[in-house]
Amino acid sequence: MTIDDKLIGIGVKKMLVVDDKTEHIEAAKKYFKDYKIPVDYASSEKQAIEMIYDAYKTQKYDIVLSDMQMEKSYSGAEVTGEAFKHQGLGIIVTGQDAGGHGHHAHGPSTKILCGGLDKTIDGTKAHSDTWKQLAEATTEFIVGDGKRLYDALQRYHKYVSKPSDTIYGLDKL
Predict the structure, then answer these.
(1) How many CB atoms within 10 Å of residue 86?
(2) Is 31 exposed, middle or buried (0-12, 13-18, 19+ CB in 10 A)?
(3) Domain boundaries, the chain
(4) Cα(93)–Cα(60) distance, integer angstroms
(5) Where are the alpha helices (DSSP H) in the chain?
(6) CB 62 within 8 A of CB 39
(7) What is the phi-psi region of residue 114: left when phi exceeds 0, alpha when psi lies from -120 to 50, beta otherwise?
(8) Hey, is 33 helix, strand or coil?
(9) pLDDT per residue over 120-133, tens digit each?
């Protein structure tokens, strides 16, 4: 069973990848091009939040994979927070320095952060193989230990946070 078949099996219908580095987006596109699930791309926090908001009206993003440092050092937290507010699972995928303690846009490794998932993948997001490893690790989390989190978002989102008719703070980006 392929990774996207596993995601389809739990109801994932649409994904968003967010990164401000062109080479990272191009590598993600190369990896995700054969997915059966539609994957969209954003190159900034502002664009991602607008896309999440707009998609919620038609077909929401079930999974949002976002870089951490874009316009601001915490842009990814803003993006994944917006994903959660709009019934999606936000996952940080960010470059990490050699010591493993700080974020660095060009890695030598990439860190995945979401709920109970805290994993480091060797390689930068400029390589499609790294995106494959990121997709495998996040999918195993979502269908395994993270399934309760994903299911809860789908079932109880209206109690956790309700999307507003306006995008809070978007004019400040």
Answers:
(1) 23
(2) buried
(3) 3-154
(4) 20
(5) 3-9, 22-32, 45-56, 75-85, 128-143, 147-160
(6) no
(7) beta
(8) coil
(9) 999 999 999 999 99
Please report, as a single letter, which amino acid is at residue 15: M
Protein fold of 3-154 = Rossmann fold (3.40.50)
Per-residue exposure over 110-127, b if at least 16 CB sit within 10 Å of its own CB, e if not: bbbbbbebeeebebbbbb
Q: Which residues pair with 85 in a beta bridge?
A: none
Provide the token pair at 76: 């990814």
Amino acid occupying residue 19: D
pLDDT of 63-99, one tens digit each? 999 999 999 989 999 999 999 888 888 999 998 865 5
What's the rounded Cα separation, in Å, for the pair 36 and 82?
Answer: 25
pLDDT tens per residue across span 147-171: 666 666 666 555 555 454 444 444 4
Determine what percent of the chain falls in helix, strand and coil, rounding each to the nearest 5. 45, 20, 40
- State the Cα–Cα distance between residues 46 and 109, nearest whole angstrom: 26
**What does the alpha-carbon distance between residue 76 and residue 96 come to, in Å, rounded to a whole number?**
14
pLDDT at res. 25? 98
